[in-house]
Amino acid sequence: MNTPLYSNLIHLPDVLNGHFITTLTTDSDTGKTYAVSEQLNGEDVNVQVWVVNEDQNMIPYLDSIFPAVDSITPQIICCSIIPDTRSICLILRSGDIAITYLEHDNGLSSFDIVGTISPGPVSAAVFSPDYSRLAVVTSISTPTLMLMDPTSFEVLSSAPIITSDFGEDAPINVGWGSKATQFHGTLGKQAAKASIVPDRSTSTPDDDLNPRISWRGDAKYFVVSLFQDDRRVLRVYDHQAKLQNTAQNVAGLEHPLAWRPNGSLIASTQRFGNVPNSDQNENWALEKGQEGRHDVVFFERNGLRHGEFHLRERKLTQKSVIPFRRWGYRVHNLAWNADSSILIQLWTTGNYHWYLKLEFPASGDSKRFTTMLWHPEDPFRLLCATKGPLSSTSLPPYDTGLLTVVDGDSLLLTPFRTQNVPPPMSSCQLPLSNPNQISPPPIDIAFSTKTPQTSTTDFMTCLFAGGIIKLWCIRTNITHKLGKNDPLSITELWNGRIHETDLTKFTLYRQIGLVPHHETGWTIAIVSNENGKDKLICIDLRQEGEEKLVLETQREINLPEGRGRLVDSSNTLIWQTADGMLFEVEDASISPFGSFSEFCQIASEVRAPSHPARILIGQKSSKLIATADLPGVKKPLTLSRSCTSYCIAGNYLVWTATSPSHEAVFCQLDTLLDLLKKDPETSTSNDVVSPDSFEKRRIERGARIVTSVPSQTTLVLQMPRGNLETIMPRPLVIDQVKIDVKNKNYRSAFLACRKHRVGINLLVEIDPKEFMENIPTRSELSPELINSICDRIRENFEHINIQKFVDSILTAYIVKKPSDYEAGLSFLLKLRENHPDLVEDAVKYIVFLVDVDKLFDTALGMYDFSLVLLVAQYSKKDPREYLPFLRSLHSLEIPYQYFKIDDYLKRYPKALKSLQLSGSDHFEEAKAYVEKHNLYKDALNLWKHDHDRFKAMLELYGDYLFDRREFKEAALAFMRSSNKGKYMVALEKALEWQDLFDTAYAENLDKEEISSIAYRVAENLSAKQRHIEAARVFMDYLNDIDQAVSCLVKGAAWSEARRIISLNDRHDLLEFSFSTGTLEAQSSIRGEIAEIQELLEKQTGRLDELSAKRLNEPDTFFGAEDPSLGNIDVMTDASNPGTLFTRYTVAPTASDRSKRTSRSKRKLDRKAGRKGTIQEEEYLLTSVTKLFARLETVKADTKMLLPHLVQLSEEHMEAAESLQKELSDLEERLRTGSDQIWGAREDVTVPIDQFQKGNTATSESEIVKLIHKVPKPVLSDTTWKISWLGL
Hints:
Helices cover about 30% and strands about 25% of the residues. The strands form 15 sheets. It has a 4-stranded antiparallel β-sheet, with no helix packed on it. Strands 5-6-7-8 form a 4-stranded antiparallel β-sheet, with no helix packed on it. Strands 9-10-11-12 form a 4-stranded antiparallel β-sheet, with no helix packed on it. The longest helix has about 45 residues, at about 1065-1110. Mean pLDDT is about 80; it is low at about 1-5, about 315-325, about 340-345, about 390-395, about 775-780, about 1125-1155, about 1165-1170 and about 1250-1260.
C-alpha cells in the first residue's frame, strides 16, 4: 500500500568551486555511481567526474576541458557507462564524443575525443537500454534524427525529424464518420462541403524548446518529443529509426517525456486554461479546462491518449520566485515521477488511482535540483543531485487491521477487522492540512499499541518535513459504541517540532518510530542524518489528562554509522546499519546483538510464544531473512528468495512467494526459532529453507499481503488488478482454536472448527488431560469426539444421573466411529426394565438420530423380536409390511431362524454358520448357498471335522477353481477329495505332465489312453513354447523320434537334437530336420538384427532432432507455459466476505465445483508423452535401453547356434560367418551410439516424475539429470564369437 522510501546523504566536496552536478550515471557491474559536474570558463567548459565510494564519499575520478558551443549549460547532453567496452561516454553539445575507460580504480585519467557528430550542435542524445543504439537529435533550426552504433559511433541512419508523414502504422481512413457522410438537418448539403478549421494549439511558456528522446524498456522503439510550429509533437520510431506513428495533437503539451519501462505508456505533462500574466502579443492556446490545472498525461505507442492524473500544484510546499515561470513552478523532467526545479514528487499507482506518496525539497543556496537518475537495476533507488544536501513503515496494528495509505495531504484509513474497503476508497480520511497551512505528504508513519493482543486502540505518529511531528489516538469501532456508522474515532494527542540545537547545520529527517514510555507515555524516535552520520532523536511524552500528552524530554543518541534504519518493534528501539548489523538502543547507549546477511529495506521484530527471545525478520528485494537474539544463533537464515510480501499473523510468519508456485507460506514462530538454533556448520549462509518445511496455500498470481487480523483468522490480499480478497487460511484458524482451548473458551473453538470444517478431535488433541478434567462442567459440548472420549462422557452421565442424560448417553453410542447401534439398543432394553416411563421418549430420540431401517435391521440382527417391535412401533413403518415377515421368522426353529435373519441382513458367513448348525438335513441347501455367495473357505473351515462333508465341500471348491482356470489349485483340491478323474483332467489342463503320467500309470490306464493323453500334452506343451518338454513326452511316451527332434530344433536345443539323432541312428534327420532348422534359425536371428538396426537408426535420428529443438525452442521442448499466464489460479481458493460495498454484488463462488474434470485429467496424461518435448526424449532413451536387452537375447541365441553351423556344409559355414559379422557390427554400433547419445545429454535435467505425470517441476529437490533417470546401458562381456571364424 505505502511505498517505504530510504534516502542516503552524500556529501559534496568543497573543491567543486562553482561546479554543479549535471549528470549522474551508474555502473551496474560494480554498483558504483559516477557524478559529472561542469563549469563554463569563457569559451571552454571544465568537466569533472566524481565516483561515490563505499563510504558514500565523492572522490575525484578525472578532469578534462572541452570547447563550449555557447554560454548555455549544461554542455553535457548525455553521459552513460557502456557495459561492453567498460567506458564512460560523454556526448557534448558541440557534437564531440568523449570516451574514458574504467580500467584503473585510482582514476585520474582523461577523456579521449573519438569522434564528432555533425552537423551540430547536439540537442538530445540517449543510449538504448541494451546499448545497441544511440539516438541523437542535432541542429535546432533543421532538426535531424541520427541513429548511431555505440561501439564504433558510425551513423546507421539519418533523416530530418519534421515531416508530414504519419508513419508506417498510419490508420486507414475509409470515410466512415467523416463530415461529408453525416446528416446536417436544416444546414443543408453545403454544411457537408464546408471545410473544417482545426483548433489552434500551442505549448506553454515553460517549455524549454529542447527535443527529448525516451526509449522503451526492450529497446525496440523510442519516442522523440520536438517543439514544432509552437507546439509539441511526439513521434514514435522503431530501433532502425523508421517512423511508426505520430501522436495526436494535444494542446498545452510540455517538454517532459518518459516511456514506461514495460512499454505500456508514454508519459508527458499538459497545461489547461489560460496563461497567467500574458500580454496581447502572446497568443497561447492551451487545452480548455480548469484554470491552473496541470496533468501528467499518457500516450500509447500508436500515439493515442490513454489516461491522466492531476498534479497537486496547489499543495506544493515551496513556490519559485523566477519571473518567467508563469505558474510559479514548472515540471523539469519525468522519470516516472515528477521532478521540478523546486521539489521532487514521488507517485505510485494502485487500482487505477495515482497516489502522491512523498515530496521533498532541495536545500542550499539555489534551492533546486540539478539532475536525477533512477537506478537501472534497483527499482526503488533514486539518485538526485543539488548544489547542497538533500533532504514507512512500522509494525502494523496487531488486531484491528488498521491500514493507512498516504495520498498527498491526506491519510486514507481503513480498519480491516470491521470493513473491507477496496482502494482507492477508504473508511475515512484524515486531512493533514488546514485552510491556513498547506501540508506536504508525511515522510514516514509509525504505529504502536499498548496491549497488542487485546486492544482495539492504536496510536499513530507522522513525521513531516522540517521536523514536525503529530501523534493521534485511533479507536476502532468493534462494538458500535462509537456509533454504528463511525468506523474510527481519531483524537490528536500531541503535535510539535523537533528542537534543533544548531540551526546552521542542515539535518535530514527520514524515519520515525513509536514505542511505549513507562506505563502511560510514549517515546517518539526520529532518525536523522547530519554530516554523514545517523543520529537518533528521542522525544519522551508523558500523559497529562485523559487525552493529552506533554513533552517531558528530548534527547539525542549519536549512532556509529550513516544510512541506517529503525527496525519495526512494539516495545524497544532497534537500529539497523547499512550492512545489516543490528543494535539495541537503550537510554543513551547502543549495544549490538545480531545481524542480517545484508541490509533489509523492510525489517520487523517479533517474539515466539514459547521463548522470550526476539526474532528479527527482514526483506531485501525478493529475499526474506530471519535471525534471532539467541546465543546459539550465529548466522541469519534465508527463508525465501522469491518473497513478494510478508506479515506477522498471530504465532505465524506469513509470506507470499512466486517460486516454485504462487502461494502463501505459513511458518510457526516456534518452528522458525528451532530452525535458527540448528548447527550452522551443517549449512552455508546461502542455504534457503526448503518450502516443504512449512504449510502452504495457493494464491492468485501477483497477490500480495496487505494486513492480517489474528483474532478473526483473516489474511487480506491485494490482487494485481487492485481488488482486495480476505481469506481465512487453515493455519491461522487452527492457531486461534488452540488459543481458545488454552483459555477454556470451548464454545468459540467449537464454532470455529464447525465453520471452517476443522476436525472436532482437535479440541481434545490440543490438551487431552485438560479437556478430560473439564468434561463434567462442559456437558453442553457436542459429543462428536473419538470413541474413548464418547465412553468417558457416557460413563460420567451414567454416574451423574442416568435418567437425566438418556439422550446424551444414546448420542454417545451413536456418534462413535463406527456407531455402536447394538449397545444403544441394549441400553433401551435396560431402560425398559428399570425405567419403563422413559423408554418411549428414548426410542423416539434414537429413531430421530438414526435411520429407522438401520435400527430395525440392527435389532433384528440381535435376534430379539421384542426389541424389533419396540423400534418398529415408534417408526413410520407399516405393520402390514413387517408383521407377516416377523411371524414367518418366529415360526422357524432357532438355528434355521437365525439363518434366515442373517441372510436377510446379508450377513452371509454368519448365515452359513447358522445353516450348518441346523443339521445334516440342510447340507444340500448349504452347498447351494456356498456356491451362490462364494463362501468356499468359510465352508471348509466349518466342516473341517466332518470328513465326508469336508470332501464334498472341497470338491465343490475344486470345481470353482477349475472354472476360474486355476487348474493347479483345482487339481490339489480334487486329489484331496479323492476324485481321480477330475484330478487327471486338472493336471492335463495345468500341463503338470510328470504328475499326470505318474497318476495314469498308477491307475493302470491302457496304452492307447496313455498315448492319447501324451499326444494332447505334447501338442499343448509345444503350443506354449515348451519345446524341450514336448520332445521329452514324444520320446518317453510315444517313441516318436521325428517329432522329438523337430521340437528340439524349434526349442534351439541343438546339441540335444544331435544326441537323439545319433542315439537312435537316424542320420537322415540330420540332413533334413536339423540342417534346415539351423538355416531357419540363422535367418530369424538376422531378421532380429536388422530390426534392431532399423530401430536404432530411427531413434538416433529423432534424438538428434530433439537435441536441436532443445537448443532452439527450449520453452516448447521443456513444456514451459506462457509467462504472462504462468501459474494463474482460474478459481482461487481465497474467499472474499461481503462488505458494505459488495452486499448487492456478491456472486456465487465455484469453490464447491470440481477443479479438474476427468476429461482434463486424460488430456493431462496425453500431454505427458506428446511429441517434441522432454518426455519424448526420455521415452526414446528408454527405448534405446530396451534394444540393448534384445541384443543380449540375440547374442545368447547366436552363441548356441554358431558351433553347429560350422560343423555342417559350406552353405552353413557361410551362414555362420555372415551371422557373426552382422551381429558384431550391430554390437559395435550400439556401443558407439550409446556413448554419443548419453554423452550429449550430461547437463539435461528433468523432474523426477516428468514422464509419469507430465508436470513441470521447479523445486530443486524434484530435479534430476536425465542420464541419471535413464542410465546409460552397458553391454555384457559374454563371449559368444568363434575367434577363428571369418579369418
